[in-house]
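Please predict the structure of the following assembly.
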Amino acid sequence: MKDTEVLQSLVDALKCLPGVGPKSALRLAYYLLQRNRKGADTLSQSISNALEQLGHCKLCNDFTEQEVCKICSSQKRDVHTICIVEMPSDLLMMEQTHSYKGMYFVLMGRLSPLDGVGPKEIHLDRLIERIKSSEIREIILATNFTAEGNATAQYIKELLKGAEIKMTRIARGLPMGGEIEYIDSGTLAQAVVERKQL
Amino acid sequence: MKDTEVLQSLVDALKCLPGVGPKSALRLAYYLLQRNRKGADTLSQSISNALEQLGHCKLCNDFTEQEVCKICSSQKRDVHTICIVEMPSDLLMMEQTHSYKGMYFVLMGRLSPLDGVGPKEIHLDRLIERIKSSEIREIILATNFTAEGNATAQYIKELLKGAEIKMTRIARGLPMGGEIEYIDSGTLAQAVVERKQL
């Protein structure tokens, strides 16, 4: 019904964003064109800059525009500990706790054979090489506690069997402020099994 | 904590979208960079194309890349009726009813003095000129039934007082499938006042 192909291709392009369907894509398009042309221009440029300039850190695989990211090139971090996370956002969450001062490795995914994601896709070869080439004493497996995250942790554990490196998994249990009445039974069962002596 | 300024500016730019806060902006940025680089590229180009090429139709004020849009240049439309809507999305909704075959005028807003939107901002001068320069016999006021939409309709009505043109407002009442039990009392009162003889 609408004639403008330019508008239509903008709407189609906006639909690539997760959670944006035809209706909200149209709403977003009109918003950008009518009320925030400056923001739209910045957005267009930022996307193209990011696609052009952002690469992966040679060491930890996180996004960076340098060859080696800030964390990996920092002198203040403990180079003997490495924390393995699935996504850059997980790394960010870890950093926000201010409780971890070691290095990272970002898998950029998790093992998921059905989606065609195998060991190669999550850069496990690079991880192994990284661990072998540096003096790592502890590996913290901080993948998610989902089926795929657990499988990924298990796979990495098997892969590094025999290496004289301490391997740990972040703890499972009730969240801070968690109430037993409202927690799922799986978590509660695990919290009982992994109870700690006081 | 993160070093990459390029990533940060992408996140900031994504925050310009309505309903996108810092957390979802980060999620969107990672999504574009990791899982949909092609979509991201298309998005960036589509935005910049749209900003460059899309202008307003000389007649109806809707977005178009031509000087006069498809509807305004169509030979099949009734040029004696003009429907005034607030936004391009309202025009689209009208078109989807397939029940209206006249022309349009898109205000690109509604009167809202508190937000600094006066008669000039919603192009009323162009609307008046358009109506005067063509043989309009009926003006359908299809602004929203909000306070601002009603005020806009009222203002346009006053503005065209004295002109020998039929002026109508789209009907208020219960929606299709509407149940009296669940309708708000304002709508119901209006439906009673504007009752039609059978």
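The CA atoms of residues 39 and 121 of chain B lie 35 Å apart. The mean pLDDT of chain B is 89.
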